[in-house]
UniProtKB/TrEMBL annotation:
Keywords (A to Z) from UniProt: Kinase, Membrane, Phosphoprotein, Transferase, Transmembrane, Transmembrane helix
A family per Pfam: PAS_3
Name the UniProt record assigns to this protein: histidine kinase
Source superkingdom: Bacteria
Stretches assigned to the PAC domain: 272-324
EC number: 2.7.13.3
One Gene Ontology term of the molecular function aspect: phosphorelay sensor kinase activity
Classification via CDD domains: HisKA (cd00082), PAS (cd00130)
One GO term (biological process): regulation of DNA-templated transcription
Listed transmembrane segments: 7-27, 47-64
Ranges where the PAS domain occurs: 72-143
Amino acid sequence: MRKKSAFITFVYIALGAVWLNLGSHWIERLDERTPGKDMSFLYDYKNLIFLIVSGLILFLLIEMHRRSLSSVEKSYKQLFEGSIAAIYVLDLSSYRLMEVNEVMVSKYGYSRKELLEMTVLDLRPTEERNKLEEYLNSEHPEGRASGVWLHKKKNGDVFHMLISHHKTIFRGKPAYTVIAIDIERHVKAEERIKELLDVYETVTSVTNDVIWEYCPRTDQLDWMNGFTEIFGYTAAISENTREWILSKIHPDDRERVEQSMEESLAQLSNSWRCEYQLQCADGTYKYVSNQAFILLDKNGQAEKMVGALRDITLRKNYEQRLLRKNQMLKDIAWNNSHELRRPVSNIAGILNLLKADAERNQTDVSLLEMLERSALELDEIITKINVSTKNVDLKN
């Protein structure tokens, strides 16, 4: 603006100097050519023409400047009222609100008249007023966000606003133009995220789940809390690649795990799950259950996998013990169905013979001996079954 004004002034002075110089030179030559006439009156006409032309030029320049200011003022007004943010102007000396936009009126619940009778301190909770006064009275940067401040509505609700401001002259007084953006939703979202992170950290601290994230495009594998604690791998001895973690899978399981993961990625499945043995830093193996969700990008391609790795060693060991005990129970059942049948059949046959002898009033001593041997054999089998049953300790 200053350069434009200086240029116009320079052009005006230059043209005026040229006009005055050429006019005087022209009148002098005309006076020389007409020695019998007094041409000095032309100087008055020249000055009059200069005044008229200068007046017209100044009028046009002033009108152009006025229209320019009017256009700027109109644009500023449209920006002021059309902004989605609350904008207000405050007096630097009294902190009174000098102008507010419609967003300000709807946001705080006051009428425009009420707001213009208030100070900026009235829009703050009591505990922040001293802080605001100290800030306004101190040296501070302008033209950028000055931080998040608590504001108060007419109904007493408190909410967070992101403030930026700059100095200006409004109605002849030093003032601040302040832009306030409501970020209450973002603050609550951040608080909610923090709560969820706290819950997540609590849950992961009491479970064996290790959250991980893998990006197929960059081959970047990131582990969350718990990986070092459960499997012993520190940052110094681990790598954030797929090949590294695959190399820690038991040789008997690796091909199956790789094939399963490749099929899920190729088929763009929503989820993937697999159980296998994973080597710890000390060389031992733990049984793990690995389950992941596959997230797709806008083109329908696999963008990342987010999963949970769980140590299921205790469960697997318990399952193996249950299988062994189940086999023992099958052996006991076989004894019940095969070994017991033989002496029982013998006893049944001997009893039939004894019944026949009793009808003839005769008793064969050898039959009694056979009955005794069968009874002893049956007792041994029952003892063996009892011993086998005691070995099946489901609690262990």
